[in-house]
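Let's do one together. I've listed all components of the complex below, 724 residues spread over two lines.
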Amino acid sequence: MLPDAMVSSKRILRIRSGLARFHVDAILFWDMKNIRYLTGFTGSDGALLIGRKEQILMVDGRYTNQAKREVEDAEVFEYREKVDGIETILTGSGLKSIGFEPAAMNVQTYLKLKEKMKGLALVPLSSEISAIRTVKDEMEIAHMKKSSDISFQAMTAVQELIKPGMMEKDIALELEFRMGRFGAEQIAFPTIVASGANSSLPHAKPGSRRIEKGDVVMIDCGAVFQGYHSDETWTFVIGNGQDRQKEVYAVVKEAHDRALEAVKPGVLCREVDRAARSFIENKTLGKYFSHATGHGVGLDVHEAPRIASTSEHVLETGMVVTIEPGVYIPNLWGIRIEDMVLVKEEGCEVLTRMPKDFKVLN
Amino acid sequence: MLPDAMVSSKRILRIRSGLARFHVDAILFWDMKNIRYLTGFTGSDGALLIGRKEQILMVDGRYTNQAKREVEDAEVFEYREKVDGIETILTGSGLKSIGFEPAAMNVQTYLKLKEKMKGLALVPLSSEISAIRTVKDEMEIAHMKKSSDISFQAMTAVQELIKPGMMEKDIALELEFRMGRFGAEQIAFPTIVASGANSSLPHAKPGSRRIEKGDVVMIDCGAVFQGYHSDETWTFVIGNGQDRQKEVYAVVKEAHDRALEAVKPGVLCREVDRAARSFIENKTLGKYFSHATGHGVGLDVHEAPRIASTSEHVLETGMVVTIEPGVYIPNLWGIRIEDMVLVKEEGCEVLTRMPKDFKVLN
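Okay, and this is what the predicted structure of the assembly comes out as:
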């Protein structure tokens, strides 16, 4: 048996052993990232049924061969129309209650399934299911180190190109091209390059604005390797920084460092958020820190757990999360410092590699 | 009043005048492309309520300023949590039945909304709503000509680089980089570059395979300009083509031309599919044409109408659709020829620009 199939087999067993706790006879997985995680199938459409005995991956004709090649640990069933395929599998299976991921299924499909399978209870499983991928194994961590390396190499190379006069969107394009060259399968999300006042918007799209001396420039980017994402934000100044920029940078950096310090197994995620937020609040910049401190990363760039003020999630060894406090002064500039870290027994290991000290380019 | 707002205003009126036909008091739009179409808002999250009197765009704090800047024709309401925001707007509004797009809303949200607003009927509107963007106006067509130009320029430039020994994924990367350089906001979808036996898979991902003499190479790519997508497939041969490749190319090209010929206002989409499919079937290649002949394109790369064997949709002047027959010989190679065309009174205009005659490179 291949190591991959052993991994898949263990993960499927973990789901199966949870069926009683979820009070369902089987779970119908719909989220393609969960299906990839459980079976190794990398196609873009399908469904996976895991019951006490059943482990059936349903795909359409485009994916039958690929599924048979990639999946060792589930039976592959080909359908022409997804809902009809599910009906065929479930009819006569004796299964009475089927759990599913309500955030991954749309209402159109849900209503069709309910209509077709009237005797069946469809049970939405929310938080239980969203947490199945939070703890990463060695292979997953190796992939995330690699995706972090790729974005680091791309940022390091592009750093040489950044000069006053260059457009934000051209910096983004160069970064994305280089991530591809350095081995990214794809970009983790549309790269953010925000300069000057644009950096005061946490989610700015790179545009035609040209970098000027004195600008704050914020770059938020990531690569995907073997399906696993990296996520990192690097903020620097062009020309010579103003004192106020240096001061705020130091506050955000200290908040970032305090959150890193708080990351340990057994700690509530909201405590990590608190560590960053309370420091920024004490410096009277709290109202400019308008988002959560971080989030889990893996097969999705945003996944459980959230590192937010209300998050009841508890950190465990093997989780990978971002720590990304930011301060955004309206219409002036913004500073965000983001690393992706692995929770370890004694604290955490930073996986992203750009240095985060205050930096002036050119 | 700005021209953009006039467009938005007309589109909203069109929805409003359809409320009675849909048997609802209002429609809650959830699909961000429909919201962009109706209001001009380009953010990535929000909801839009259109009732007999109401036209309210609901967004979170990240998007309030952007929404106020972009949207002339709807009131902007800021929420902290989306479902709560909708509850606030609907409570006391007197609205009793709310239509929504069931394919755009997930079950988690749907169950929350139903739980919170027990007195309200949530009415799924499927086909009626999916067709609101099918007919393009002059501005939309201009944007799609521009996105087609961008991918044409990129393919033309990359054509010079393609040589035996080059990896599929590097060709894809060069294409995507050049689309960005020529003005694409983003790529329309992950570029397909499939060579040799990989081209026999309609949806292959570009990989490490190196182009060889004698390969069929299939490139399927598109650009986005002002939100509007292009979609085009170009298949060619490296070195000198085999007779069988030329023969099959000629069949696919003739099927493509016949489908183009069939495109006219008033024609059923399935008749267009038939025009391509029957020709391929007559050449005994029908079993290798494993997908539909085409689909609508616009703010989404795949939107209504479908050009498929069962499609009851009728073509109208101003629709933009792809025509993309393909023949895939298992384990050998595949040929797809795809253009994006505008339905005009007298027939159609081809918007994509790569020549589609049989071509041998190098």
